[in-house]
Amino acid sequence: MSAINTLGTALAISSLTLAMFGCKDQNNSAPAPQTVTSASSSSSSQNAIKLTPIDTLSITDYALGLCIKNTGREYVEEINALICNNKGIQHLDGIEQLTELKTLHLNFNQIQDINPLVELKKLTSLYLSGNQIQNLEPLSELTELKELGIQKNYVQDLSPLQSMSSLKSLHTHSNRINNFSILSDLDLAELSGQNRQES
């Protein structure tokens, strides 16, 4: 009888020990997935990028707005190149909202004022040939610009370009430029139009 009691006591102690260890393991492992999930969720929300639908853009010039929509992009941030040659564009107001633009072609339109371009800090290639542009001052802040085409405009003064150290290619023919020496500090690989200016 004593042996049976002793065996029963041993079994009871063993069961209690297993139960205690089992609870301890569960308590140690349960919070881990919750912590990881919480951290991941927080990280995702912090890294979320707010995208701007194309339809919310405010573009005053109908032809420019149509050209932007015809890119087929859904969000503004997806547009890094825009080709709008010969579209009858007169005004550029609103184009400054395309902050991811790196390449912009606006050849053979009716553009006079290029002030809205001053906000397009990521531009590396810009072509404005065949417009009615006189003042290049807004371009002076486009420090990443490497290629610039301004043929067939009414430009006289190139001084706004003299601090654009990234500029490597400049096309200028059929303007009214008399002084190209102002660009002497630039490391231009290509400069065209020096001998093809209007009188």
UniProtKB/TrEMBL annotation:
Q: Does the keyword Lipoprotein apply?
A: no
What UniProt keywords apply to this chain's record, in alphabetical order?
Answer: Leucine-rich repeat, Repeat
User: Which SMART domains does the record match to this protein?
Assistant: LRR_SD22
Q: Which domain of life is it from?
A: Bacteria
Cite the InterPro entries for this sequence. Leu-rich_rpt, Leu-rich_rpt_4, LRR_dom_sf, SDS22/Internalin_LRR
Name the PANTHER family for this protein. LEUCINE-RICH REPEAT AND IQ DOMAIN-CONTAINING PROTEIN 1-RELATED (PTHR46652), LEUCINE-RICH REPEAT-CONTAINING PROTEIN 9 (PTHR46652:SF3)
- Name of the protein described by the UniProt record: Leucine-rich repeat protein, probable
Look up and give the organism this protein is from.
Oleispira antarctica RB-8
